[in-house]
Design a protein that fits this description.
Distance between the termini: 17 Å
Helix content: over 70%
Strand content: under 5%
Structural class: mainly alpha
Radius of gyration: 19 Å
Order of helices and strands: HHHHHHH
Length: 208
């Protein structure tokens, strides 16, 4: 039986884990926004690749650390391959486009592909934590929330962005909405769904 002290300790460790990943992503955005013009072309593309790979490795390490079982620790980080692949694709595509040797498709269908990719990325980030920490399967219902939030953010972020361009710090915060805030809310919602689904068995109260 899990004591209150043990549950509190687990929640505290999960908060620390979330903080580690959030700080890693914040550092990535800050370094990129402040050094991109100093590094120059084409080195900036390698720099971007190294930075987002380090963030994904940080999250993978956190998942291994906080996973409930060995299988979960080994399985959860695998979901990060999908968003890492998406980021790598855009990095290579932008590099080739900058050289003039490649043109990205245009049209409404391509915009929908991009939107779908952004939603899938958020779902992978949240599901990775769910696989590492959640119990049962009902927590999967909570994935609807980050998906909806991401769709809303994609729809309205353009207007918000127009009013923020020019302020580097605010721009960094803007970028963290989709990479940190929405995934974090999704993880909390999935935890909440698990807690509600287990209220009939108080001896197995869920921990973040």
């Amino acid at each position: 039986m899990t004591t209150t002290a043990e549950r509190t300790n687990r929640v505290g460790l999960s908060v620390v884990a979330a903080g580690i990943v959030a700080v890693a992503e914040a550092l990535r955005l800050m370094l990129l926004s402040r050094l991109q013009w100093e590094i120059g072309y084409p080195e900036i593309y390698a720099f971007q690749g190294v930075l987002f790979t380090l963030v994904y490795l940080t999250y993978a390490a956190v998942l291994v650390w906080r996973g409930r079982t060995f299988v979960r620790r080994m399985t959860a980080p695998l979901l990060l391959i999908v968003p890492w692949f998406f980021d790598s694709f855009w990095l290579v595509a932008n590099f080739l486009q900058a050289r003039g040797s490649f043109d990205l498709p245009h049209g409404e269908w391509w915009l929908w592909v991009i939107r779908l990719q952004m939603v899938v990325t958020v779902l992978c980030l949240v599901a990775a934590w769910g696989i590492a920490r959640r119990q049962g399967f009902l927590w999967l219902v909570g994935l609807v929330v980050p998906a909806v939030l991401m769709i809303v953010w994609i729809t309205w972020s353009g207007r918000v962005w127009e009013s923020m361009v020019g302020d580097t710090f605010v721009t960094d915060l803007f970028m963290m909405v989709s990479s940190v805030l929405i995934p974090l809310v999704g993880c909390l919602v999935c935890w909440g769904v698990e807690v509600l689904s287990r209220t009939a068995r108080p001896a197995q109260v869920a921990t973040v």
